[in-house]
Predict the structure.
Amino acid sequence: MPAVGWKPPTWSVPVAAVVVSDEDGRAAWTLPRPFSRPPVVTVAVVDPDPGDGREAPTVVLEAVEVDQVRVRVWLVGRGEVRPAGPGVRVHLTAVRLPPGTDG
């Protein structure tokens, strides 16, 4: 348990958002504040129809910049891969790299 009054270093405080894909399966997140260099980003896609048993969504980071993250959601099925289309929710988190590390 952290000591009373303890605060994490400012570089380690994550930011998070949920974005929704457009007709091409793409989504963009403008970060609430620019980072000094591209952050470490984690993504998780929410399956729009988990009971269908046919296609599984996967998300790809297309770009990570100091002020924006862009992703694309794909549906992967039996022998077929296609853009997910609109309305798929993607959860994102971003955190700064610790000082003195390369990314």
Q: What stands out?
A: The beta strands are 15-20, 26-30, 40-45, 56-64, 68-77, 80-83, 89-95. The chain has one domain: 14-95.
